[in-house]
Amino acid sequence: MEFDNEFEVPVPVDQAWEILMDIERIAPCVPGAELTEVVDDKTYKGKISVKLGPVALTFNGQTTFEELDVANHSAKLKAQGTDAKGRGGAHANVAFHMEPSDNGTKVIIETNLQLSGAVAQYGRGVGMVKDLSQQIISQFSENLKKNVIDAEAGTTTGDSGATTAETAAPQDTGTPPPAAAPVQVGGMGLKVIWNAIKRLFGAKDT
Length: 206
Description:
By secondary structure, this protein is α+β, with helices and mostly antiparallel strands. The protein is 31% helix and 38% strand. Strands 1, 2, 3, 4, 5, 6, 7 and 8 form an 8-stranded mixed sheet that branches.
């Protein structure tokens, strides 16, 4: 299945690229994700947990950057993972690029996803998977702004002329943001299902 997503980063394109390429720093911003190993500068291992009501899924996998175009702020990567309890897996080819926007930078993501095993039964509809992926990306975007970008902006000069860093308690800027909680698909799941229902019967609306 193929689908597109996008989100915005409130900084210029060059800065957004530097931030998003710092995988160790941004990984904790992904809901339910944990970076477990840096294999090399293009290959990373990790896991991501999703809770669908009483069903908890944990995917252990690997992501590899296959193309990096710094000049055009674009990349292609391959991600694959298997459920820890053997209920199937996921394989994705992802391409993304960045472009300037009124709010800073827009990140546009194109995904080709294949699900296997019992996991495939949870995501039969492309629209449902897209809705869920956009929810996760939206949470990631919020976490990125709060835990990374706003943290950097804490050194800007205030009205008094003193920087926030001078007036606030010292912080270890090398410490990554706290890991995000597992994706809880409760209210989110209801929204995804409702969107699927609207698509199903939308053609009949007058």
